[in-house]
Amino acid sequence: MTSVAGSPAATGSWRDRAAVAVAVLAVLALFGANLAWWVSHDVYDTAAVTAKAKSLIASPDTRAAVTAVLDEKVVQPALSQAAGSLPGPLQSLGGTVQGQTAGLVQSAIADAVANQSVGEITSRLVADLNAQLVDGSDPITLTPTQLLAIVAPSLTNNRVVTGVVDLAEQSGCCTIVLAQRRDLPFVWQHVKLIQAAAVALPIAALGLGLLALVLARRRLRIGIVLAVGSAIAGAIVLLALWAGLRWGVDLVGDPTEGSTALVREALRVTSNVTLGDLRRQSWVLVMAGTIVAAVLVVVVNVHAKMAGAAET
Predict the structure, then answer these.
(1) Structural domain count, the chain
(2) Could you read off the pLDDT of 49-102 as tens digits, one per residue?
């Protein structure tokens, strides 16, 4: 005999299907919550990222790239503009002064950079750019003063260097555009959205999980679905990290531009120093889900044996 609509059997079947569907949605929300929480609380935490970056073995190329950008994008244009603004008869003299001043500035920068570790320069670069990325600035830029503070803060007392930097600031010629927001990876294009998701998705995952348990007639079985799903959600992230998936750092900007190297290095460092947090979170999901699922399977088997014994 088939069950008719409204009968206890039909109602129970509908509840079981709905409970499974809601449980699947809860697992999907948990998967998203894991990623959103990591990005919002680790990747977007400029202070923590900067502190971790100091202990990272940075690439020597970063120091060379920052120094080259300061010379090519600030020092040379500022001096050229100053020499070009002189009256015609003084143009040749201006060119001579420009060459001598450029040599003094380059020498001062080289000495100051040589007295610092690569990690110090990299951590300052990461701190400055990460703050802009999180605050939503568009485009991502560095002023001459900011760039000098990243390369060599000690040079703020050097009159020749600060004079050239002040000239660059006043002329407005030398603000460096590192990247447009639209060209950045997803997590940096939609900061506010991810911060909201980091709050909403954990609540949604918990609420949907509880709703699935309320709907289910066999709550232990739905509990197993939720536990196994949680373990799978964590395992997928771990497998992605093991496979080396990243967020497209090498696709940012024009690789022929020296300033692009600064953005890529800052994003790469941020990724490297925070991935450990995501890995730990995902392992927690895998371990907790596996343990809970195993316990619930044992409980279900015990109940089944007790029911079988009672029938006999």
Answers:
(1) 2
(2) 888 877 665 667 777 777 888 878 887 777 776 655 544 544 444 455 556 677
For the stretch 153-160, contacts whose Cβ atoms lie closer than 8 Å and that sit 24 or more positions apart, written own/partner, are 153/124, 154/112, 154/115, 155/108, 155/109, 155/112, 158/108, 160/101, 160/104, 160/105, 160/108
Tens of pLDDT, residues 180-215: 888 888 888 889 999 999 999 999 999 999 999 999
Task: Provide the pLDDT confidence category of residue 223 given band limits of 50, 70 and 90.
Answer: very high
Mean pLDDT over residues 245-257, rounded?
A: 66
Look at residue 258 and tell me if it is in a domain.
no
- On whether both 174 and 53 belong to a single domain, the answer is yes
Token couple for 127? 């701190």
Can you give the residue range of the structural domain that contains 165?
A: 47-183
- Listed in sequence order, the residues at least 6 apart from 157 whose beta carbon sits closer than 8 Å to its beta carbon are none
* Final residue of a structural domain among 151, 167, 183: 183
CA angle 109, 110, 111 (to 5 degrees): 90
- The answer to whether the beta carbons of residues 226 and 209 sit under 8 Å apart is yes
User: Which two tokens mark 23?
Assistant: 């449980």
Same domain assignment for residues 202 and 77:
no
Please answer whether residues 161 and 284 qualify as being in contact, where contact means their C-beta atoms are separated by less than 8 angstroms. Answer: no
Residues in CB range of 156: below 8 A, 6 or more apart? 148, 149, 162
- Same domain as 59, residue 18: no
Q: Among 155, 183, 211, where does a domain finish?
A: 183
Alpha carbons 211 and 27: distance in angstroms, whole number: 13
Q: Which of 184, 143, 205 is nearest to 267 (CA)?
A: 184
Under 8 Å between Cβ of 301 and 228: no
Question: Same domain for 169 and 246?
Answer: no
88-145 pLDDT, tens digit each: 544 444 455 556 677 777 788 888 777 777 778 888 888 888 888 898 777 888 888 8
Kindly state whether residues 53 and 124 are assigned to the same domain.
yes
